[in-house]
């Protein structure tokens, strides 16, 4: 495959030619409503949903020599109507409650569905595992003129047929509707419906089980919301042209990282996630040339489903993840052995208990604060999510992944390879910082 670097969203190949994907929409967008009568009225979103009301755009690439793509749009659209009976809030619209919080108005308006065709074969779009807002963005329908999250329906789907007989399902789904686990369960349920199967994991719709306490009880510091002063001038650095890269860590490299984290005897054990998170946090802080006294924050999501007491029900439809954090001066992170950073990650994971999560829910109720991303790295982990198992009748996707990273502070972990034992680390950095980051990965 031709080596590619994505610069500000334009894919440039090593021979200097920029590839432009041409996609033609077939007819007007349609609204897909649930196949049966569903409940109407306001649908409660918990405080864990309120904090991450951002559209997430993903693609799923399918190819089947026998089936081709002629019926793909009809099959997926028909299955969507049926699965929306179970997931009816996705057919509603975002609204603001009298208390100033997001809710879903279950008005049965319908999910937006679009069919399109591309003037090329699927292979020609290049490495679809790397965020590329210009090329991959054409595979996900954008609501014309929508400037605010309230103007974008919770679910927008586009099926794009390619000349090779393959097709891509492009989705735009609001994160307030579900976290990665919930989204995976929904898309897999949609696939099961398309194949005439009953749902393996029906959704549990009642989010009021995560209501804030009355009165609220804030028992922890919640540094995830703290604003950190940028004394290193990283804001200016980000005015440079951005590069988006994908770094693949295979099982041997991941094992090597874990051994490196434990070589000084400070840690007795260490997971792949802990070692990789500490490594990229440290490497990114070095790459951004942070001053020694610059405080840097690491944010990452922990699955709270099993940690709540009682645990959240199976199939919980909503966000069951909680952001945890660690803050330290860049000098300590960069100059200490890898075990230091791993220790901070481990402490952040241990912090997530039922009382911590209830405290975070109550903290938002009182302050309406959003987590600050100043001088922060936010790691999002999709490596444990089985998006690759989605099957609408054309087999599992040959590729799946995000269209774009939501913020410049975000790094995404995706599983990679046939056995899913490798991890792709996707990130965007200013050009000069990316060079330094790459050197550290190479010297690992």
Automatic annotation (TrEMBL):
Q: Cite the EC number.
A: 2.3.1.144
Bilayer-spanning residue ranges? none
Q: Which GO terms describe its biological process?
A: flavonoid biosynthetic process
According to the UniProt record, what class of enzyme is this? transferase
Q: Does Zinc appear among the keywords? A: no
Functional pathway: Phytoalexin biosynthesis; methoxydianthramide B biosynthesis
Q: Which UniProt keywords apply?
A: Acyltransferase, Flavonoid biosynthesis, Transferase
Q: Which GO terms describe its molecular function?
A: anthranilate N-benzoyltransferase activity
> What Pfam families does the annotation carry?
Transferase
Q: Does the keyword Acyltransferase apply?
A: yes
Instruction: Name the chemical reaction catalysed here.
Output: anthranilate + benzoyl-CoA = N-benzoylanthranilate + CoA
InterPro entries membership: CAT-like_dom_sf (IPR023213), Plant_Fungal_Acyltransferase (IPR050317)
Q: Per its database record, what is this protein's job?
A: Catalyzes the formation of N-benzoylanthranilate, in the course of methoxydianthramide B, a phytoalexin. Phytoalexins are produced in response to infection by parasites, and are essential for the expression of disease resistance.
* Similarity remark: Belongs to the plant acyltransferase family.
This chain belongs to the protein called: anthranilate N-benzoyltransferase
